[in-house]
Specification:
By secondary structure, the protein is of the alpha/beta class. It contains five helices and six strands. The longest helix is centred in the first third of the chain and has 147 residues.
Length: 281
Amino acid sequence: MARSEIVHKVDKLEQAIMELVYAQRKTEMQIQNLTEQFMVFQNEVREANRKREEGIEQLKKEMLAFKNEMAELNKKRDQSMEEFKKEMAELTRKREQSMEEFKKEMLAFKNEMAELNKKRDLNLEEYKKKVDQNIEEMRRQWGNLANKMGTLVEDIFAPSMPQAIKKYFDCDPDTVTQRYYTRTGERELEIDLLVLCNEKKRAFVTEIKSSPDRIKYVEQFIEKTKILKDFIPMLKEYELVFIYAGMSLNESTVNLLTKNGIYAMILKGDILQIVNFDQIV
């Protein structure tokens, strides 16, 4: 081998060694740098752990303080609840006692009111009997007096008839004629009370008797209703409503009137009342 070739190989070997040393040095520096960074990280982790442990310790102290505070609050709450229960028990006892006393008072009041109502009912029943007797007597005397004087129509029924017509038939009378008399040839006819509602074309023909329960009077009025329009032609344009009236009427009389489509009117107190109004179709 020539000397120059040996020299050349030696140079290449030295260069390779130098590069290896450089690489090793570079690796050592990196390892050193990494070691320093790891040391810093370790210190940071230690500091973080220290602070965490301090925080945990502080949290334990705070939790212990909170636990003690809650225990104290629960103790006070339990004491308050116990006092509240005692107060409620006392209030309940007083309320029950008051309710018992109230029940006794109410029972006494109920018995007292029952006794008063019993006495009142007895007195009221006696009073009603006396009033009914007085009214009946007054009616009898009034009817007898009016009948004797010939003023039964004028004094009792005529003044109140327009109000009664308006109440029951919803029309305002504009003509009221007492003792209406008409004659056709030898035949004559008299109406005790004739009331006209001209707007609605309705005529109310009323027969009034001091002894209304005589069947003869009722039958005569029934016959009169059949011939009325022949005697009074103007009534052919009117709807006729027939009313038979007296101070009082027996049930049999009312039934006969109802059967013939005639309204039965009586004097009840000081009010004219149609007793079979709902039964006439």
